[in-house]
Amino acid sequence: MKILVTGGTGFIGSHTCVELLGSGYEVVIVDNLLNSKASVLDRVAAVSGKRPVLVKADVRTRETLRGIFTEHKVDAVIHFAGLKSVGESVQKPLQYYDNNIGSTLALCQVMAEFDVFKLVFSSSATVYGVPASVPVSEDFPLKATNPYGRSKLINEEILRDLFVSDERWHIAMLRYFNPVGAHESGMIGEDPSGVPNNLMPYLSQVAAGKLSVLSVYGNDWPTPDGTGVRDYVHVSDLANGHKKALEKLGQAAGVFTYNLGTERGYSVLEMIAAFERATGQPVPYRIVGRREGDIAICYAKASLAKAELGWVAARGLDEMCSDLWRWQQYSDKSVQ
Ligand code: NAD
Ligand code: UFG
């Protein structure tokens, strides 16, 4: 089976390529390298023993997609490509809608032209907005609170409309909670350009001495210790979820939506303590005011993914932290 992976040199995409290659799939990547580097493929090849084909291109370029589908007999597509910074999306909404929606439109049009109807789409827990309660299940009301989140919601709606129009489509929309960690080899991980926005990459750069102190955004949230609670899920577990989703799509047409999370929430202070415990590295922090747009608590109910995909998040906090730290040390010395 040959899988086209859009955004395959990025954080979640590169781990998914490792998972797919290790399971005997062939992989073709299309990525414009806006937020990733081609050099990750040397490391994907080193850990999996196989090298995916990379086409450096924008997914919105239909002619390039047609060239890929003409050259490769693609069986299914996993669509990771997109912009993902919430704050930036507020500043640059048109860029976010153009990229995140335009890429899905171009991709689905060209897939249909080539009779490829199996698609796994990267959605996000952000589509739940401010959830009324936890754990959050797939049937909760959907509401985006920023252009990034709205681009995910609109994509989900487009994909549902697509299936209504043509029942040959097999579509899985995976709502990730908070992806963290790195490949167990320490050779593949998240490589954010500039100062990270997300907790775990920031925290690990503080531990490495590249940043001086972690700002904890508020200790007055209605949570047990007052800091924000999230469902952190190991990126290799997410990668495995994509493989399971592909297997599901092999069996049934339809539009399927799954939460991918651990069903367990941890606070910012618990994450700091877990990281210090797993790595032996101190993480200096200070409490500052709340970050605009944050929510108090969010964690998944993931029983649907367990029942229908046979997927559960196997890796715990210790592995998330120690794998991330291994990658931090490796990338500081070796990755350009
Ligand atoms: P990432 O930025 O590491 O990877 C995305 C990749 O897509 C990058 O390599 C980038 O160069 C590429 N890309 C972007 N626009 C493109 C375009 N128009 N054409 C071709 N390539 C393009 O991000 P990630 O963390 O791996 O996220 C992957 C997907 O998962 C995204 O759709 C993201 O919105 C979604 N997601 C991520 C998170 C998270 O916290 N990381 C949470 C929920 C959902
Ligand atoms: N936090 C800090 N300090 C930091 C960074 C974050 O205290 O420097 C806190 C936040 O306030 C929050 C928690 O750590 O309580 C997690 O924040 P992240 O920025 O790591 O993650 P978010 O939950 O805000 O959002 C992430 C992605 C979104 C995605 C969402 C899905 O950034 O794109 O998970 O649940 F939609």
What integer value in Å does the Rg equal?
19 Å
CATH hierarchy class name of the domain at 2-182 and 233-261: Alpha Beta
Q: CATH homologous superfamily name of the domain at 2-182 and 233-261?
A: NAD(P)-binding Rossmann-like Domain
- The CATH topology assignment of the domain at 2-182 and 233-261 is Rossmann fold
Query: Which H/E pattern describes the elements?
Result: EHEHEHEHHEHEEHEEEHEEHEEHH
Distance between the termini: 32 Å
Arithmetic mean of pLDDT = 97
Strand order of the largest sheet: 3-2-1-4-5-6-11
Share in β-strands: 15-25%
Number of helices: 11
Can you walk me through this structure?
- This protein is α/β, with parallel strands linked by helices and 336 residues long.
- It has a domain at 2-182 and 233-261: Rossmann fold (3-Layer(aba) Sandwich), CATH 3.40.50.720.
- Helix content is 42%, strand content 18%.
- It is built from eleven helices and 14 strands.
- The strands form four sheets. Strands 3-2-1-4-5-6-11 form a seven-stranded parallel sheet, sandwiched between helices.
- Helix 1 (11-22) links the parallel strand 1 (2-6) and strand 2 (26-31).
- Helix 1 (11-22) crosses helix 8 (235-251) and helix 7 crosses helix 9.
- It is globular, with a radius of gyration of 19 Å.
- The mean pLDDT is 97.
Topology of this structure?
Elements: E1 2-6, H1 11-22, E2 26-31, H2 40-48, E3 53-56, H3 62-71, E4 76-79, H4 86-91, H5 93-113, E5 118-124, H6 147-165, E6 170-176, E7 178-180, H7 199-207, E8 214-217, E9 229-230, E10 232-234, H8 235-251, E11 254-260, E12 266-267, H9 268-279, E13 285-288, E14 297-298, H10 303-309, H11 317-334
Parallel strand pairs: 1-2, 1-4, 2-3, 4-5, 5-6, 6-11, 7-10, 8-13, 9-14
Antiparallel strand pairs: 9-12
Helix pairs in contact: 1-2, 1-8, 3-5, 5-6, 7-9, 7-11, 9-11
